[in-house]
Each structure stands twice: as C-alpha cells, then as structure tokens.
Write a structure and sequence with these properties.
The structure holds 3 protein chains of 3 kinds.
Chain A lengths: L8 H16 L9 H7 L1 H11 L4 H10 L4 H13 L16 E6 L36 H6 L11 H7 L30 H10 L2 H12 L7 E15 L8 E15 L12 E8 L3 H13 L16 H7 L2 H9 L6 H25 L1
Antiparallel strand pairs in A: 1-2, 2-3, 3-4
Helix pairs in contact in A: 2-4, 3-4, 3-5, 4-5, 8-10, 9-10
Chain B lengths: L2 H8 L6 H17 L5 E2 L12 H10 L6 E3 L6 H11 L12 E5 L22 E5 L9 E4 L7 E3 L6 H11 L7 E6 L2 E5 L4 E4 L4
Parallel strand pairs in B: 2-3, 3-4, 4-7
Antiparallel strand pairs in B: 1-8, 5-6, 5-9, 7-8
Chain C lengths: L14 H16 L5 E2 L13 H10 L5 E6 L6 H14 L2 E2 L8 E5 L12 E5 L13 H9 L4 H14 L10 E3 L3 E3 L9 H4 L5 E6 L4 E5 L5 E3 L26 E5 L6 E5 L2 H15 L1
Parallel strand pairs in C: 2-3, 2-4, 4-5, 5-8
Antiparallel strand pairs in C: 1-9, 6-7, 6-10, 8-9, 11-12
Helix pairs in contact in C: 1-2
Classes of the chains: A alpha+beta, B alpha/beta, C alpha/beta.
C-alpha cells in the first residue's frame, strides 16, 4: 500500500531507457548523425546556437539529435553546457560593416550601393511540397555553379547611413565606449529599468516565437511604430579579442550572424523634430525572422526614451524581458508536472473547511 | 623583480581549489551565521608576509575579477599585491567607495565611513571588511545579539578596542544597510554581520 | 583542478560561479529575509525544478558532507531522486535518507518533522521568491515596497480573505515577517511548517534560480507568520493519526485507495514515518 506514494528509482531509469530507444526509432532506418544535422538542418542548428547563446554548430547539432529534434530542449542542453564554461573576457564589438555578406536586402530602396544580394532564401519560393526530396540523391555539383565566383565587396555601405547623411534618421546610439565592458545578464541578474544594450542581449537570447508574436502585435496596432526593413544582412564577421597581456586585439575566428536594422516612424516631440527612428536586431546564424522581430520589439521598448505613451505589451520592458527566455518559461510551465500533493492537500483541507462553514452559515440563515 | 620573489607570489595558493575553498567558505558561512563564534580553520597557504594564511584563504575564496578589492597601505607591498592579483585576478581600487571587499589589519583600522553600505533598495550592494588579526593587543570583551545568536554571544578579538566596536555598533544601527565584518585569526575565522547588535561592557 | 569522474568540476559549477553564489549567500545571511539578486546559471535540470536550490547546494557542499534531498517530504519522489543522483555523480558526496544523519538537506515544499540541529543546513527550492508578486507584478514596485517597509498591501489582501471567506485563504507559501523587517516568502511549504522556521537552530538558505534570488534565515532568527489580533495564525490539524506509523501531529498526505474514493492519510515526511515505525517496534519488544 505504501508503494503507492513512492516514485521509485527503477521507474525513472526505465523511462530514460525507453526515451533512448524512442529516439533511435526504427533501427532498420539508418541513424542520423550530428554532421548530417549540422549540414542539412542548418536553420535548426542556427536557432539553437542563437537562443542557446553559444556559437558552436557541432554542439548544437548534437543537442538537436539528443533532444529528438525538440529545439527548446536542445537550447536548454546548450545553455546547461554553457554554464560549465569559464569566461575569459569580452570580445571587441563586431564590425558588421565588414561582414562577408551572403545575403543582404533592403526594402526601402529599389537599388542600393553594393546591390541587393538575395543569397539562399525561402522568399519567393512557391511553398509546394517537393516530393523529389523524399528520395535520396547522389551528391551533385550544381550548387557550385549556382553560387558562382563573384567576389563581393569587402565593405558594403549601410543603407541607414544613407538616411543618416540627410539627417532624416536618428544617429545610432552609443551607450558606452569600448573601454567599459557591456552589461551581461548571464553574469548580473536582470535589473529594471534595463539599458538598451542589456535589453538587446535579452532579446538576442529570446524565444523566436515570443518575439515574433510581440513584433506582430506592433504591426496590428498594439504600439504601432510602422517598421520598414531598412537593411537585413547575413554573413560572416570576424571576432576580435584583446588579451590583457598582448594589449592589442587579435582575430580569434569568424561567426555567421544575421543583422536587421529597422526604420520606424517617429512623430517628433517637443525637443526632437519628426524623423525616422531605429530598431535593431542581431543574432547568431541565419535567423532572419528572429532578428526582424527583435528589431520591432527593440523599437517598441524604446517608448520611454522617445517619450511615447506606453499602451501595449511590446512596450512593457518588465513584461517582455521577464518572459522572453524559453528555457525559463518551459521549465516553469513544465514544473507543474512535478508532484504538488503537499500544497494540494493544504488547499483540499481549506476548501472542505470553507464549504462546511458556508453550509453552517446557510443553515443558520434558513 | 627577481625570480625568487616572483615564484613566492605565484606559489602558495590552494593545492586543490574546489575542495579547499569549499572548506574555507563553509567556515566563513558558519562564522557569518553564528556571529561572534570562532570557526576553526587551518590552511596550507603560504602567502607572502605580512598577509596571514587565514586572511589569504578568505580572500582567495571570495574575491575574483568581479569584485574590486581595497587593500590597506601596509599590504600594498609588491609581493602581497602580486600574490593576490595572480591568485584572484581582482582589480585593486584606490577609492574605498569602489570596493566590494576591503582588507586591513586590526592594528590600523581605516575610516569605515568611506566604504559602501548599500542602498535602501539594494542593501546587498555593500562592502565586506576582511580584517587580519595577528593576536596582539588587548581583547575587549563585548556581547552580541541578533539573528544567528540564541540568547547572547560573548566575543572578543585581540587588538580591537572600544573605539572599533562603537563603530560596529553604529554600523548595526543602519540595518539593513551596513558593512559586514570577517575576522581572520591565526586559528580560524569569526564574523560580525550588520545584523548583530553590539553591547560594550560599559553599556551591558 | 579536482575533476570528478564525470569530467565536471567538483559539484558541477565552475569556481567563478561558486564564488559569485557564495558572496550572495553571505549577504543573504547578513540581511535576513532580504532577497539578494544573483546571476543564476542554467543548470542541467529545468527551471522550476530546483535550479536555485541546486546552485546553493553546489556552492556550499564540501567533500565530507552528507546530503539528503526531499520533495513533498519524501526522499523517493522522482525529482528528489534525480537531484540526489546529480550530486552523487558530480560531487561524489555521501547521501542519506535519514534526517538526523544529513549535514545538508535540500527540500521542495516541506520542512522535516524532526527538529533540525545547529550543524545542519536546510536548502529550500523556491519558485517565486517575492511574497508581494501576486499583489504587484512589477519588480520595480515590489523592490520599493521592501525598501520603504511598505507592506500594507499584503495586510489588505489577507484581511479581504477574512471578510470574504471568514478565514485567511492562504494555505502554503504563507508570508512571514523576518526580524520585524522584511516580509518573506517561505517557499511553497504548507503553513503547517511555518512555525518550524522560527528560531530554528539550523541555517536556512533559499534559492530561486529562474527568478535569480537568494535569501536566508540564520539560526535563531525570529520568523512570524502574518496575522491579525482577531484572526491569529493557525496551522492545519488532522483528526486522525498516520495510517502507517500511527503518529499524531505530523503533516499527512491523502492517498486515494480505490475508484470509490476510499482514502487513507499517512505521513508526508517518509523518514519521520519510518523512524516512528522503528521506535514503535523497539518499544514493543
């Protein structure tokens, strides 16, 4: 009888073993390898790197395999692994104007210096299931031909600089110079009000779906700020680090990032004339939807700074920043699976007692 | 600097950082949780003079490159600074109000008013005083009461006089703001958090 | 560096992280009941499943500690088993189910029935550390309320309960006042356990990982459950003894026995139940 309330170590072990078996699936189908995931499911890998806050395509691919394709679970695995890594310091700010661009588009001008570079994109594809993909094909060489050998300029001008030259858009803000280390919410707990750079760090790690919904809400009138995709660029940028003993920065590698600079309306205030304002998004990998949403939310969160009335969830810093992290969110939502019978027992007693009291009161009244 | 002094400041740290610093931390935690009690703590550290082994153990356990450190002038001699920089990576600050930790000797107490005592919204943003006690001088007996103490705790530290304890008493009157004190004696560690009320004999 | 068989540092966390948590713990002890912000890390278990408690335990563990982990008062609930295994694996420490043998007890939702001693530390897992959160969702506001000792809202809420239901309708996570200064959330322990917090001989540490807060009650700290003169604080009582060990006065879980709703009540604290049974058996001999 007492066994009824026992969890049982054996049951847990068996559940884990069953999970491993389910992950493998039908053994007559070849096992997927992390290499295949990294090469062929690269959008999944990029999302896990970006929200896992760790640039490591191999580990992300492994995490996706281990998580049976559950990306939030894979992000969680990456975050937990990240915890064990020591911190050597902060890199120099990335210079995305020197990006080796793979894709670069602007919605605000038909043609732009440096050109519109479509790169590999879903855009303009007809979303028709391609049944030919169901079959395994031999490696082909056609991709190389498509890619061509055109060398892109190593420094492509920014679209927003063109507007800036006319004074039509606010200058990009510089909150701090390079000598002060950037705020880091993985080292200091989030504090309100947050600075814009801290907000951006939070949004860069934030759940894509959450940002997408919030960004979408600003388009539907909840803090409407009418964004234009001024420029989206995706490509490799150099990471530079200045070890204290060297005293000068050295390049330690390259990472692929996506950057979105959104151009938004601003009616002007007592002190500022009407002009365009900026929203900014940047994250690891090719995560276009994420950085566009991020830029919309960043702009909405600048309500206080721009003297706008705060009327919508996307403008509410505490609400957005406190609920954007999917590892926290999934943990706390799913913790409702844990036993709560002690608390429930307390509530059960209370409801019984209150029902008894109300019965007595009712009888007394009759 | 010659090789010998250099070596002395690079050696003399914990042999096994995770387990040894865990032991030292528990002694500090016990000391802070039971104000005015001695938590015996031996250490194999060999810091350069005049830094004592107990004091070095507490610093190496709590201080790192996230915590600005203020050192008393007596400790600013080359070897101690080099030793602490190597083993903790801490940034030394001249300005006492920038310090998260301050280290000084009982024989020369600095002006305590210059250290941060926190704010009403963040009383934790305050400095911790690490005081090296070398066992010299009279030990004025005092009594402590407050959290961590069942009734009343008798306490005395060699070299700390009525003048010092009156400052600690006024520190307590600012609670929840205030400084926390860790005393590093040759035989172990004791502490007096801001929550402890100090009663001097004259007022007992 | 000491690396256990898992390839991780002693007790999983790296030393830099432990130092950060240790500094927060010392501040928490120095300011009883105040929630110290700390840079909580992602752990290999999910948020809401004890990451705060796990980080506190990992930061205070010594190799010679004996660890007990309970969830709902029991050592063998799934989450307790998982956390105990985690520390066995990453710290190589001894574990126990016997309350009196443990030096550190990590708990979710209960305080052991047996009185804890001065050489023990009780580590609570906390989901929502802010007692005022359900009255005011904004951190900026609740922080001000704590700074100004402005707790009127909480009293109003409790009093509304009384006028609506004839009693205070909070049965767990029942707010307490620490040393007449800070209102504190005791974590979701049933209010039955609140009186045990008052002047407990053991150090009590509270870790909230997702919310990034640590707070503490040093030994012998005064902890008062909020109440009113005409409605004094009361704890749950059961009319019957535990169906297994026969003890009266422990917190009882209700166990449904069959589809027709028959039930029994037995101790939530499994170690207490076991030792009461043993005592009874010895007495009978």
């Amino acid at each position: 009888m007492y066994v009824a309330v026992k969890g049982g170590e054996k049951a847990i072990r068996n559940a884990h073993a069953l999970f491993d078996e389910k992950r493998r699936g039908d053994v007559s189908v070849p096992e997927i390898t992390p290499d295949q995931i990294r090469e062929q499911l690269s959008f999944s890998v990029d999302r896990v790197m970006s929200e896992g806050s760790l640039y490591d395509p191999d580990l992300s691919a492994l995490a996706i395999k281990q998580a049976r394709g559950d990306l939030i679970e894979a992000i969680f695995l990456i975050r937990a692994s990240r915890t064990t890594l020591p911190r050597y310091g902060s890199s120099k700010p990335l210079d995305t104007s020197k990006m080796k661009v793979e894709r670069r588009i602007s919605a605000t001008y038909k043609d732009i210096p440096g050109g519109q570079i479509l790169g590999a994109t879903f855009d303009y594809q007809h979303r028709l299931l391609d049944f030919s993909l169901a079959e395994q094909k031999l490696p082909s060489e056609s991709v190389d031909e498509i890619q061509g050998d055109e060398v892109l300029d190593d420094k492509i001008p920014r679209v927003l600089d063109i507007l800036n030259n006319e004074g039509l858009i606010e200058p990009a803000s510089m909150e701090s110079d390079e000598s002060t280390p950037p705020p880091d919410l993985t080292r200091d707990p989030l504090d309100f009000p947050a600075t814009r750079s801290l907000r951006l760090q939070n949004l860069a790690r934030a759940d894509e779906g959450f940002l997408l919904a919030l960004g979408y809400s600003t388009q539907r009138g909840y803090a409407r700020n009418h964004g234009f995709a001024g420029e989206i660029r995706i490509g490799a940028v150099a990471v530079e680090f200045a070890p204290e003993e060297l005293g000068f920065p050295i390049e330690i590698g390259e990472i692929i990032v996506s950057e979105c600079e959104m151009i938004n309306q601003f009616k002007g205030s007592k002190s500022a004339p009407p002009q365009f304002t900026r929203g900014y998004g940047l994250a690891f990998g090719q995560v276009e939807r994420k950085v566009m949403s991020m830029a919309l939310v960043d702009r909405a969160l600048r309500a206080d700074e721009l003297g706008e009335e705060k009327i919508a969830p996307a403008q509410d810093e505490e609400f957005v920043l406190s609920h954007s992290d999917n590892v926290k969110a999934t943990g706390f939502v799913e913790h409702l699976k844990l036993p709560h019978y002690v608390d429930f027992q307390a509530e059960l007693e209370l409801v019984r007692k209150m029902r008894a009291t109300s019965q007595v009161m009712k009888e007394a009244a009759e | 600097m010659d090789d010998l002094t250099n070596k002395a400041s690079l050696d003399g740290g914990f042999d096994d950082i995770p387990t040894e610093s865990a032991g030292v931390f528990r002694a500090v935690l016990d000391a802070m949780s039971h104000p005015g009690t001695m938590q015996n703590q031996s250490t194999n550290l060999h810091p350069p003079a005049p830094l004592s082994p107990t004091c070095a153990a507490v610093i190496l356990t709590l201080v790192d490159n996230d915590t600005p450190l203020w050192l008393a002038p007596e400790l600013m001699g080359g070897n101690v600074v080099q030793y602490l920089k190597f083993h903790t990576g801490a940034a030394l600050v001249e300005n006492a109000s920038d310090a998260a930790f301050a280290v000084f000797l009982a024989s020369d107490i600095p002006d305590l008013n210059q250290f941060q005592t926190g704010t009403a919204e963040y009383p934790d943003r305050s400095a911790t005083m690490i005081i090296q006690i070398d066992g010299h001088g009279d030990a004025l007996p005092i009594n402590l009461t407050g959290p961590g103490i069942e009734y009343k705790q008798e306490f005395s530290v060699p070299g700390l006089d009525g003048k010092f304890w009156r400052k600690v008493r006024s520190n307590n009157s600012k609670f929840p703001l205030g400084l926390d004190f860790v005393f590093c004696l040759p035989e172990g560690i004791a502490a007096c958090p801001r929550s402890s009320a100090v009663m001097l004999e004259e007022t007992v | 560096m000491n690396v256990s068989s898992t390839g991780y540092n002693f007790a999983y966390l790296n030393e830099q992280t432990k130092r950060m948590i240790r500094r927060a713990l010392l501040k928490a002890v120095a300011i009883p009941g105040y929630q110290v912000p700390f840079a909580s890390r992602e752990m290999p278990m999910p948020y809401g499943w004890g990451t705060g408690g796990v980080q506190v335990t990992a930061s205070i563990l010594k190799p010679d500690d004996v660890l007990k982990v309970i969830d709902q008062g029991a050592d063998d609930t799934t989450n307790a088993v998982s956390i105990r295994d985690f520390f066995k694996k990453t710290a190589g420490i001894a574990t126990t189910e016997v309350t009196k043998d443990a030096t550190i007890i990590q708990t979710r939702h209960r305080i052991p029935e047996r009185e804890l001693e001065a050489n023990q530390i009780l580590v609570f897992q906390v989901p929502i550390p802010e007692p005022l959160r359900f009255l005011e969702p904004r951190e900026t506001e609740t922080r001000k309320m704590h700074a100004l000792e402005e707790y009127g809202l909480m009293h109003v809420k409790l009093y509304e309960d009384i006028s609506r239901n004839g009693q205070i309708a909070t049965t767990y996570a029942y707010p307490v006042l620490v040393e007449d200064r800070y209102v504190m959330d005791p974590s979701p322990v049933p209010k039955f356990d609140n009186p045990k917090m008052h002047e407990m001989a053991a150090l009590q540490l509270f870790g909230a990982g997702r919310e990034m807060r640590i707070y503490a009650l040093p030994p012998f700290t005064r902890v008062k459950s909020l109440d009113f003169e005409d409605h004094p604080f009361e704890v749950q009582k059961w009319d019957e003894p535990c169906a297994i060990c026969g003890t009266i006065g422990s917190y009882l879980d209700e166990v449904i026995l069959d589809n027709s709703g028959n039930r029994m009540f037995c101790c939530s604290d499994t170690d207490h139940c076991r030792s009461e049974l043993e005592n009874a058996a010895e007495a009978a001999q």
